[in-house]
């Protein structure tokens, strides 16, 4: 089985009908592919067995998580070159599955496929790393299943997240004055922007849905003198947030609950922030989510919904969730086009007053998180697991490229429960939030 890299390169190029965009280095130390390009390192032939068992993205993800695949060189450049092959990017010349079907009709490709089976060795694929893979249980978006999904993503250790997120402990898109700003300044500016859009004033009552580690409610209470309730489904987040609040001397003005938004019954609130949480709600539950937030607000109250959006597709019913993200990162999460989000908020009774698209800001944020993870790699792997650290590095780097390429976006939607006879109570000049 000498020159495994050369044989794999030839096979890949025959299937794709185009030159391979990266180099390959195989387990036998052979190399092949364009000089100077990032190198896809296949550490073990197990990687091929995973691909044969689950062709496409999920097989590649399993090999990556297990450490059977790696990248030597610039990770972003490698993912950018591979994007059309892995994620079926809309500007890719040929969808990989269609190309594969056509290729397998040719005798020489069938022979090459048999050769890949020989290269892979034993035909039975090994089990993927169980501790990194979310096991689905029960109907979608029940209280129990949503809590389990949130725990899978967020209960991986506060110390791990502190390495990635930095001192702000904010796990959502920052708001950058310039690419040269610090992550801390950008996250502080994002929290303050939300408070100003909500028009927070002394003595008001704020609900933060999906409060994370408490950064939003801390900023609002400290800088705007509000009383705040933060809810999360993560026990680890709640414990961390309560400790921060006590240390800040704000325990009399901030309450943290482990609670689902569907279980809140102590309304009304003057304002609601929902930052990076609605992605977990799901298409079937979004109307209920919008109705619930509307009912929790006082007339005249404002909602700031900060949410990732995907691009629309021709057949929305055929849209499917990214397998790698669903199985390893955000179980049961779903993205919707911003138009659908605005429409459902309006159907719940809200008056939508502003939509601000900030996708470039998320690309900068993700690159900062990846930098933090890579600088603290050994400690991050120790605090969680090598496989989990590899999952986070891949998904954050790939997501940064998705925002940069406009495959996904992120929007802040300001909506008001406008009272009769119709004065929404917002300034006359757009985005003069405190006027």
Can I get a quick summary?
Residues 160-419 form the Polyketide synthase-like methyltransferase domain. This is Class I SAM-dependent methyltransferase. This protein has 435 residues and is α/β, with parallel strands linked by helices.
Question: How is this structure best described in words?
Answer:
This protein is of the alpha/beta class and 435 residues long. It has two domains: 4-128, no CATH class; 143-416, 3-Layer(aba) Sandwich (Rossmann fold), CATH 3.40.50. 45% of the residues lie in helices and 15% in strands. It contains 17 helices and eleven strands. The chain has helices at 4-16, 46-53, 57-66, 75-86, 96-104, 107-120, 143-154, 158-165, 183-198, 215-224, 235-247, 286-296, 323-329, 338-347, 359-375, 377-383, 386-404, and strands spanning 23-25, 31-32, 39-42, 69-72, 205-209, 227-232, 254-258, 269-275, 297-310, 351-357, 408-416. The strands form two sheets. It has a seven-stranded mixed β-sheet. The chain has a four-stranded mixed β-sheet with strand order 2-1-3-4. β1 (23-25) and β2 (31-32) form a beta hairpin. It is elongated. The N and C termini lie far apart (72 Å). Residues 160-419 form the Polyketide synthase-like methyltransferase domain. Belongs to the CFA/CMAS family. One of its GO terms (biological process) is methylation. It comes from Streptomyces platensis. Its EC number is 2.1.1.79.
Which strands sit side by side, in order, in the main sheet?
Answer: 7-6-5-8-9-11-10
The fourth-level CATH homologous superfamily of the largest domain is Vaccinia Virus protein VP39
| Structural class assignment | alpha/beta
What is the CATH T-level topology of the largest domain? Rossmann fold
Question: Helicity, in percent?
Answer: 40-55%
**In total, how many beta strands?**
11
Tell me the span between the first and last alpha carbons.
72 Å
Q: In the CATH classification, which architecture of the largest domain applies?
A: 3-Layer(aba) Sandwich
| Number of helices in the DSSP assignment | 17
CATH class of the largest domain: Alpha Beta
Q: Beta-strand level of the residues, as a percent range? A: 15-25%
Radius of gyration: 24 Å
Order of helices and strands: HEEEHHEHHHHHHEHEHEEHEHHEHHHE
């Amino acid at each position: 089985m000498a020159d495994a890299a050369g044989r794999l390169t030839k096979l890949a190029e025959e299937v794709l009908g185009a030159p391979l965009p990266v180099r390959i280095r195989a387990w036998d130390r052979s190399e092949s592919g364009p000089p100077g390009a990032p190198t896809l390192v296949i550490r073990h032939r197990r990687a091929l067995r995973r691909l044969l068992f689950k062709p496409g993205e999920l097989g590649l993800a399993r090999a990556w998580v297990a450490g059977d695949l790696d990248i030597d060189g610039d990770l972003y450049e490698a993912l950018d070159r591979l994007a059309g092959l892995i994620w079926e990017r809309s500007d890719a010349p040929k969808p990989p599955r269609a190309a594969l079907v056509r290729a397998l009709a040719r005798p020489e490709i069938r022979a090459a496929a048999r050769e890949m089976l020989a290269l892979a060795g034993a035909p039975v694929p090994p089990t993927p790393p169980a501790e990194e893979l979310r096991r689905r249980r029960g109907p979608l978006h029940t209280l129990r299943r949503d809590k389990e999904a949130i725990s899978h993503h967020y209960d991986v250790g506060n110390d791990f997240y502190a390495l990635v997120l930095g001192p702000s402990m904010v796990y959502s898109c920052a708001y950058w004055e310039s690419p040269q700003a610090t992550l801390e300044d950008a996250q502080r500016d994002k929290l303050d922007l939300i408070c100003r859009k909500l028009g927070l004033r002394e003595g008001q009552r704020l609900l933060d849905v999906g409060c994370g580690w408490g950064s939003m409610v801390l900023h609002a209470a400290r800088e705007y003198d509000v009383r705040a309730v933060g809810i999360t489904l993560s026990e680890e987040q709640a414990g961390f947030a309560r400790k921060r609040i006590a240390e800040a001397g704000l325990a009399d003005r901030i309450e943290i609950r482990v609670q689902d938004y569907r279980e809140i019954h102590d309304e009304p609130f003057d304002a609601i922030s929902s930052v990076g949480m609605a992605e977990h709600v799901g298409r079937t539950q979004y109307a209920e989510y919008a109705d619930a937030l509307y009912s929790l607000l006082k007339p005249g109250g404002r909602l700031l919904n900060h949410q990732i959006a995907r691009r629309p597709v021709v057949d929305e019913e055929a849209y499917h969730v990214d397998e790698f993200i669903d199985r390893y990162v955000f179980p049961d999460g779903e993205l919707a086009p911003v138009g659908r989000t605005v429409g459902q908020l309006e159907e719940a009774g809200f008056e939508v007053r502003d939509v601000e698209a900030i996708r470039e800001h998320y690309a900068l944020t993700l690159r900062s998180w990846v930098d933090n993870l890579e600088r603290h790699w050994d400690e991050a792997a120790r605090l969680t697991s090598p496989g989990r650290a590899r999952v986070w590095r891949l998904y954050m780097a790939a997501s940064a490229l998705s925002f940069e390429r406009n495959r996904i976006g992120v929007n802040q939607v300001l909506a008001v429960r406008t009272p009769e006879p119709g004065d929404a109570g917002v300034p006359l000049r757009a985005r003069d939030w405190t006027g």
